[in-house]
Amino acid sequence: MARRVDSLQFIVVYNAELLQKDIGTKVMWIYVMLGVMILASVTMYSALRQAQRTRHELEEKLTTQLTSVVNHLENEIKSVADKVDYFHPRPVRRASKKKS
What is the value of pTM for the model shown? Predict the structure, then answer.
């Protein structure tokens, strides 16, 4: 039983020494990965904000174009209706006579 405990202690101590030797590089890798994650998050955020800005600008542009097209069509319809009324006036309705 004593040998098993000694070998287990040896493994634990050996692993602790390996961890102590490599702790600096492991911490450095942790910071590097954290930095990469932060940069990726900032890049994704800026890309999404740019896409949102672009979508909003396109929305406004499309709304403006649609409004101008609708106004143009309404003016065309009014001008055609005025021309039709000018050449073909609507008949005037006569008042109906009441029977007494």
Answer: 0.53
